[in-house]
Amino acid sequence: MIGAGIIGLAHAWIAARSGHSVAVLERRPAALGASIANFGLLWPIGQPAGPMLQLALKSRGLWIEMLEEAGISSRQTGSLHIACRDDEQQVGMEFAALAPALGYQCSWLDRADALACSPALRPDNLLGALWSETEIMVDPREVLSRLAKYLAERYAVSFEWSCTALNIDSSRVSTTQGEWSASRILVCNGADVDLLYPELFADSGLIFCRLQMMRTPPQSANWNLGPALAGGLTFRFYPSFAACSSLAGLRSRIHRESPEYDHFGIHTMVSQTTAGELTLGDSHQYGLPVTPFNSDEIDRLILRHLDTYVRVPDGLSIRERWYGVYAKHPEKPYLRLQPADNVEIVTGLGGAGMTLSFGVAHETFHSTTIKELR
Ligand SMILES: Cc1cc2nc3c(=O)[nH]c(=O)nc-3n(C[C@H](O)[C@H](O)[C@H](O)COP(=O)(O)OP(=O)(O)OC[C@H]3O[C@@H](n4cnc5c(N)ncnc54)[C@H](O)[C@@H]3O)c2cc1C
Fold first, then answer.
1. H-type helices in 118-244, by residue range?
2. What are the helix and strand counts (H, E) for the chain?
3. If you measure from the C-alpha of residue 8 to the centroid of ligand 1, how many angstroms do you get, rounded to a whole number?
4. For residue 116, how far is its CA from the centre of ligand 1 (angstroms)?
5. Residue of minimum CA distance from atom 5 in ligand 1
6. Ligand 1 atom closest to Cα of 9?
7. Counting atoms of ligand 1 from 1, which one is nearest the CA of 356?
8. Mutate to test the pocket of ligand 1, among 161, 180, 192 (most ligand atoms within 8 A of CB)
């Protein structure tokens, strides 16, 4: 396995528990890519109805199995999409009506029920919320480090940290720490796919997305966020909501009234870590050079939108700010490429890599067809 992000570790878990001998080569001293930069939200409600929703639900089941097996904590809280404007309410209600037939476990909550469901909502603008029971929060930094340790201890998976794969053929990997051989090589190198396979990357259609995130200090002792939160802007972000005819009205109102949210690809979500910190975000800048410079304007816009619906005991003071990067294909949910016999690349999971990771890894070992060949 090349890469100790969530896609590499999910593949390592599935391979190791099926009895394979597994080695993970990671170029950093720890997983430091997109997999620790995210919200830790397993978010089936964001996947479009049909095969992708089914894959997300399969992945959810495997996540729960892995978390229980490895003794890693999670919050199986479900989620709320908050409506503070009429058009947000329309989309939420329309989706709740369509949801059962499409395979989602959702319902519409009126204002009083939404307030009863979450201690974190401001009552003043609230109209109601779309409740979904399938979402789970994990603490990504905790999962990535604990899962690697668990795999090493329980399944004797060998981890080679600070070991960069430089060249791969069908059974050998040349690295900065010598040569490795394997009967099957899975390359799960996330947004670094352009470094190892520049020509494949150039033809792949993948683009990079840069996202800004923030985190509060832990909230007062034992205060619990309850369900993960998403604001009304999120309806225009996930493809699941494209099923709603009322979405066009919401999109054009936001474009007219707050074009800055479209310009920076902003929607807002809130999750909570094991220590009680709130993770807040995010923005999406696609296809631009990934600069190291965070924009204060973007952070302020995210906080401004959160302020319309979130109320937490210690306020949204910020302790950490960072940006993350992922690779994404404009149309495909992820890419599976085969650059050589016995070598597969799994990348381009965009903003759904945590959600889909274990489902995609399961597919790698249990599907006989490789979807896309060199
Ligand atoms: C800000 C942000 C928020 C997000 N929120 C969510 C969310 O809430 N829910 C969700 O489902 N998804 C979310 N995502 C998406 C998700 O984080 C990614 O899709 C996922 O983490 C990708 O995992 P990965 O293993 O492919 O990549 P990575 O985590 O980047 O791992 C790739 C690893 O490969 C290593 N590597 C690269 N090249 C080599 C080499 N040559 N040799 C050895 N090692 C190498 C890298 O060092 C890295 O550790 C978010 C992403 C971001 C950035």
1. 140-155, 193-196, 198-204
2. 12, 19
3. 9
4. 35
5. 38
6. 25
7. 11
8. 192
Distance separating alpha carbons of residues 38 and 45, to the nearest angstrom: 17
- How far is ligand 1, taken at its centre, from the CA of residue 259, in Å? 29
Question: Atom 37, ligand 1: which residue's CA is nearest?
Answer: 189
How far the first Cα of the chain sits from its last, in Å, is 19
What string of pLDDT tens digits covers the 374 residues of the chain? 999 999 999 999 999 999 999 999 999 999 999 999 999 999 999 999 999 999 999 999 999 999 999 999 999 999 999 999 999 999 999 999 999 999 999 999 999 999 999 999 999 999 999 999 999 999 999 999 999 999 999 999 999 999 999 999 999 999 999 999 999 999 999 999 999 999 999 999 999 999 999 999 999 878 999 999 999 999 999 999 999 999 999 999 999 999 999 999 999 999 999 999 999 999 999 988 899 999 999 999 999 999 999 999 999 999 999 999 999 999 999 999 999 999 999 999 999 999 999 999 999 998 754 443 32
Q: How far apart are CA 355 and CA 352, in angstroms?
A: 5
Domains contained in the chain, CATH given: 1-74+138-198+333-374 (3.50.50.60)
59, 359 Cβ separation under 8 angstroms: yes
What count of Cα atoms within 13 Å lies in the side-chain half-sphere of residue 232?
28
Q: Which residues line ligand 1 (CB under 6 A)?
A: 2-8, 25-28, 31-35, 37-41, 43, 164-165, 188-192, 196, 211, 213, 281-282, 324, 326, 347, 349-355
- Please give the structure tokens belonging to residue 211: 């996202």
pTM of the predicted structure, to 2 decimals: 0.96
